Amino acid sequence: MSNGYLTGPEKDGLYKAIFSRRDVRSHFITKEIPNDVLLRILNAAHHAPSVGFSQPWNFILIKDPKTRLQVRESFLKEREKSIQMLEQNKPRQEKYVSLKLEGIMESAVNICVTYDHTRFGPFVLGRTSIEETGVYSVCCAIQNLWLAARAEGVGVGWVSILSNQELGNILEIPPHVKIIAYLCLGYVDEFAQKPDLERAGWLSRMNLDEVVCFEKWGLNESEDWSGLAEAVARLRTEDNIYAGGP
Ligand SMILES: Cc1cc2nc3c(=O)[nH]c(=O)nc-3n(C[C@H](O)[C@H](O)[C@H](O)COP(=O)(O)O)c2cc1C
User: Fold this and answer.
1) Nearest CA to ligand 1 atom 23
2) N or C: which end of the chain has fewer CB within 10 A?
3) 188 and 71 inside one domain
4) Of residues 83, 77, 87, the one with CA closest to residue 98
5) Which residue has the least CA distance to atom 13 on ligand 1?
6) Measuring from each residue's beta carbon to the nearest atom of ligand 1, which residues come in under 6 Å?
7) 159 with 220, same domain?
8) Do both 79 and 158 map to the same domain?
9) Whether residue 110 is found in the same domain as residue 149
10) Does some domain include residue 76?
11) What does the pLDDT look like over 167-215, one tens digit per residue?
């Protein structure tokens, strides 16, 4: 449209991608991701907002099974540490052990996303007071990637149970570059309706009114906001505003 607004179906498509995006660890199928699809996904990530337009991200694409095995070794070690942390809470520990928390080997491609704070620096417009805005920018790119992948029918799983030190060595990342994410991408046999952690009974989605407040921290009522405050309070987690199917 000439005024830049999305049409109704375009808007529906965006909300559908948002509500049906999932973190995928266990539904990968054996199918290559064609280069044109990967290109669109990466280009979507590269069009994220970034502080001072610094574009501080890099994407390392990994297929080599030898590299992936090394990364999975790191996952297994870090997972073991998590299991030990739950030693005092046996039911939680058992549940943790039962969860599938990565798809490093089964996915088609792994992508390590990094942050380079030296890019276009040292003066990066907008990053002068809040250093973390650089990392926030990379997270925006990751979310773009995640949603674009969903639109392409490609699942993404974020694996953070890893040692960044080991990952840096495996991938030969220079010391000034920070690792932000390790992602596993691949086609899937289904996108689950709910997060795996919710289905497994680990945690549930909070209601919107538990996280929204008006004018000051903790205020969930306000005359000036009455219409919205009531709508927020009525909205249950299962009510997606998007009305379409998966
Ligand atoms: C920063 C970050 C790190 C994550 N690390 C892991 C991980 O190591 N293993 C895993 O299974 N899921 C990981 N996840 C996925 C979350 O568990 C998932 O997003 C959450 O349970 C909600 O599910 P959904 O993404 O399907 O809506 C991570 C997500 C984020 C944003």
Assistant:
1) 195
2) N
3) yes
4) 83
5) 158
6) 22-23, 25, 101-102, 158-161, 195, 197
7) no
8) yes
9) yes
10) yes
11) 999 999 999 999 999 999 999 999 999 999 999 999 999 999 999 999 9
Distance CA(146)–CA(155), nearest Å, equals: 8
Instruction: Give me Rg for the CA atoms of the chain.
Output: 20
Shared-domain flag, residues 31 and 44: yes
**What DSSP designation does 145 have?**
H
User: Which residue has its alpha carbon closest to ligand 1 atom 28?
Assistant: 158
C-alpha 201 to ligand 1 mean position (Å): 15
The domain tally of the chain equals: 2
Asked if 192 and 137 sit in the same domain, the reply is yes
* C-alpha 25 to ligand 1 mean position (Å): 9
pLDDT at 1 (0 to 100):
46
Which H helix or E strand runs over 59? strand 57-62
Q: Which domain holds residue 142?
A: 21-202
* Any domain includes 166: yes
**Model-wide pTM > 0.90:** yes
Instruction: Give distance in angstroms: CA of 24 to centre of ligand 1.
Output: 9
d(CA 104, CA 90): 27
Asked if 110 and 154 sit in the same domain, the reply is yes
Same domain, 60 and 105: yes
161 C-alpha to ligand 1 centroid (Å): 10
* Ligand 1 closest atom vs CA 24: 26
> What whole-number distance in Å separates Cα of residue 97 and Cα of residue 87?
12
